[in-house]
Specification:
The chain contains two helices and five strands; from the N terminus they run E-E-E-E-E-H-H. With 167 residues, the protein is of the alpha+beta class. It has a three-stranded antiparallel sheet, with no helix packed on it. Strands 1-5 form a two-stranded antiparallel sheet. A hairpin with a 5-residue loop joins strand 2 and strand 3. The termini are far apart. It comes from Dromas ardeola. Its main location: endoplasmic reticulum.
Length: 167
């Protein structure tokens, strides 16, 4: 997401380890992409060459799901459990609930981070608008002062006596 900069747009490229273009967004202000990955190094690029004069502030988040040996970690607890099948069933239910809460908490953190990025972008726009309004208000005030001074001078000149008095 582009938080600050002229136009609030940028190009985005995502290349696979084989060099194939997976995603190409042209002049977008934000985007969310989900990609099924394979082993290797991916390359992503935020390109601002079309707007070389203005710089951009960008927020991005990379979320990697199902990394590592999660299946093995979930099965490690079973070697410490002894007892009946009923106990195993309850432990599996507890583990499932814990994993569900963990996934929802992770999703909540992601959504809050995204909302913070939206808030930062909106704050930057608001500050830019505030500066613009202040500048033009000062220009307007300056013009009003100059116009009022010219009007006072013109009105005063109407009532001046231009005749030379002879004594």
């Amino acid at each position: 997401q582009v938080l600050d900069g002229a136009g609030l747009d940028v190009d985005f490229h995502l290349l696979s380890p084989k060099g194939e273009t997976l995603i190409f967004d042209e002049r977008k202000s934000d985007g969310v992409h989900t990609v099924e990955t394979e082993d290797g190094d991916y390359m992503f690029c935020f390109d601002n060459t079309f707007s070389t004069i203005s710089e951009k502030v960008i927020f991005f988040e990379l979320i990697l799901d199902n990394m590592g040996d999660d299946g093995q970690d979930q099965e490690d607890w079973k070697k410490y459990v002894t007892g009946t099948d009923l106990l195993d069933m309850k432990l599996e239910d507890i583990l499932e609930s814990i994993n569900s809460v963990k996934a929802r908490l992770s999703k909540s953190v992601q959504i809050q981070t995204l909302l913070r990025a939206f808030e930062a972008r909106d704050r930057n726009i608001q500050e830019s608008n505030f500066d613009r309004v202040n500048f033009w208000s000062m220009v307007n005030l300056g013009v009003m002062v100059v116009v009022s001074a010219v009007q006072v001078y013109m009105l005063k000149s109407l009532f001046e006596d231009k005749r030379k008095s002879r004594t």
